[in-house]
Amino acid sequence: MCGIYITNIPFEKNEIVDKLKSIEFRGPDNLGYEKVNDLSFGHLRLSILDLDERSNQPYSFDHLKIVFNGEIYNFEDIKKELEALGYTFETTSDTEVLIKGYSEWGKEILPKLNGMFAFAIYDATNNTVFCARDRMGVKPFFYYWKDGDFEICSQLRPIVNAESKIAKEAVSIYLDCGYIPSPYSIIENVYKLPPGNYMEIDLAKKTKNISEFWNLKPVEIRDISYEEAKKELHELLIDAVKIRLQSDVPLGSFLSGGIDSALVSAIASKISKNPINTFTIGFEDPKFDESKVAAQFAEIIGSNHTETICGPNDALQMLSKFVKVYDEPFADSSALPSLLLNSVTKQYVTVALSGDGGDESFIGYWHLLLVEKFKKISFIPYPIRKLLNKFSWYKVLNTRPETIKGILGAKDENELIVRIFTSFDSLQKKQDLSWMKYYKIFKRLAKEPLQRAADLNIKLWLENDSNVKVDRASMASSVEVRSPFLDYRIIEFARTLPLKYRYNNGVTKKIVRDILSEYIPEKVFNQPKKGFAIPLGDWIRNELKKEIVENLNDEFLFSVPNLDIQKFKKQMSLHMENKYDYSFSIWKLFVLSKWYKEFNLKLS
Questions:
Q1: Top-confidence residue, 257 or 568
Q2: How far apart are the C-alpha atoms of 470 and 354, rounded to whole Å?
Q3: How far is 405 from 313, CA to CA, in rounded Å?
């Protein structure tokens, strides 16, 4: 888990070192720099495997040089393959396996890799740079490109300079999503390499070409019994956890009150020869606190458990760190307790397992179930549903009017699915969803609307929200997080299962629950899930109110392109009066205001 950098722009060494030092938290164990021909390489190392300096980067083999961030979990298997072909190894790291694997197979190394990765390899013979990013987009990959000049980095901040300009289109997308999805970034001429893609740069011709090596496939449901499916999934999970336990530094596991982290921790506990370390964040507000359930899990699996209670002041103290680490506007407020959790975890371990990814594959998120609710009204002709929108159903159902209008006003399931992920109550004056062209694949992958919603969750939200939150929060404390549920084998396997194995009569993640019952009694884990969230709505009305009001002034609001200021002010007023919860809208704008101040850039 590291930070990578490579450029053909003729910066001085001290300039590149300063760039890397701005994100030094990604790899405090070594800062590496080399210049070869017209290319400058930089690397920040967080030592996990082979702690010796021989595995520092940039790393060379023959005519190749690599900078690599991540972990290749099956590197030992690939190493054996290469040894059979006559290769010898000087280190015990996955970096050496990766560069020698590329030397042997070229881009065909990518399907062999099981891991989280972002890397760039320079081939001095061909004068090319080959880059790739893992299937799920767990590891970040930013690049600047203009007329053949490029910079590649694990984070945005080192690429930003005084001449950088804010991309208006990206701001508009952020107003809907609360994050900026790939291939976009908040900065003009800076992009994200999409997950499961590789990029080839011809340095002589000053051209780049981006291609795909992995994506979700159209769903083909297997003819498999429930018991067979449960057995096969259990074996996959055990292996996914096992290969993520490889580490030359202390390792632990995050443990919430949810079933995914409980199952990961339970499997790890059974595999490990010694009791594992588990870590939980609790909240003073009982409506959000799962720490008592997590403590029960820890007692049953016999882990060394550390619990940290998060109050308003604890989370809000993370605000300045949040703005510096999440160097794009990012409105997932659970990033604050995530930062706190990782700062505590780092005191004990350097690597932590997590349960991220289980909800996407096994239908755990409540917002996916809106698709099921839509089925109940989809028989009503669209014109009649539009007419029904004129009635104040939200008062009867005690929910926000935008949500009801969004569901009733959707022409079909696909439009509803898009609205779930792009806001029922857009803050844009004119909503432009043309950027969704990069994610339209979800429409043709599955017959079942619920599966299509889960697929868009994987392609859009997982990469750009969940993985960003985990990567930046963990890296801020130099912690590496590994997520067994994000193993591509599990994601591919889950999509071949009948939906009823995963979601059945209102029971979410059924098959995962049944596997967990082999480790933890059902009566312990079968409790309402509260989610890893903070009481943001209350904090906005109280602890954060003064700062919110000061930041969201007219001068700032008028600087936000395409913002419906009148609509936002109405939402903010209703929230402060405690009539409706518009905390997400307010938080989005608040985070954007903090980002504006941090980077002090002009609009394009």
A1: 568
A2: 9
A3: 37
What lies within 8 Å, CB to CB, of 346 at 6+ separation is: 477, 478, 479
Residue of 2, 153, 177, 310 marked active site: 2
Q: Residue 530's pLDDT is what?
A: 59
Strand-strand pairing, 304-310 and 149-153:
unpaired
Q: What percent of the chain has pLDDT over 90?
A: 78
Cβ–Cβ under 8 Å, residues 309 and 284:
yes
Classify residue 459 by its DSSP letter. I
Phi, psi of 117 (to 5 degrees): -160, 150
CA atoms within 13 A on the CB side of 448: 18
The CATH 3.40.50.620 domain(s) of the chain lie at 226-363+454-525
For residue 153, the cross-strand partners are 5, 142
Residue 281 among known ligand-binding residues: yes
Give the model's pLDDT for residue 454: 96
Asked if 153 is an active-site residue, the reply is no
Distance from C-alpha of 465 to C-alpha of 92, rounded to nearest angstrom: 33
pLDDT at position 159 over 70: yes
Give 465-490 pLDDT, tens digit per residue.
999 999 999 999 999 999 999 999 99
Tokens representing residue 61 in the block? 């083999």
Residue 467 is encoded by which pair of tokens?
């993985």
Q: Are 174 and 332 in contact (CB under 8 A)?
A: no
Measured on CA atoms in the order 519, 525, 531, 537, is the torsion positive or negative?
Answer: negative
3-state DSSP assignment of residue 481: strand
φ/ψ of 146, rounded to 5, equals: -155, 115
Length of the chain: 604
Q: Do the beta carbons of residue 516 and residue 386 sit within 8 Å?
A: no
- HEC per residue, 74-122: CHHHHHHHHHHCCCCCCCCCHHHHHHHHHHHHHHHHHHHCCEEEEEEEE
Tens-digit pLDDT profile for residues 279-327: 998 887 777 778 899 999 999 999 999 998 887 788 778 898 999 999 9
Q: Is 354 annotated as a binding residue?
A: yes
Q: Binning pLDDT at 50, 70 and 90, where does residue 78 land?
A: very high
Element (H, E) at 585: helix 583-599
Nearest 10 degrees: Cα torsion 591, 588, 172, 208: 60
Domain 2-212 is classified in which CATH homologous superfamily? Answer: Aminohydrolase, N-terminal nucleophile (Ntn) domain (3.60.20.10)
Banded pLDDT at 528 (limits 50, 70, 90)? low
Domain with CATH 3.60.20.10 in the chain: 2-212
**DSSP-derived secondary structure for 295-350:** HHHHHHHT-EEEEEEE-HHHHHTTHHHHHHHS-S----TTHHHHHHHHHHHTTT-S
Tens-place pLDDT, residues 99-112 = 999 999 999 999 99
pLDDT above 80 for 577:
yes
Under CATH, which number does the domain 226-363+454-525 receive?
3.40.50.620
SS3 228: helix
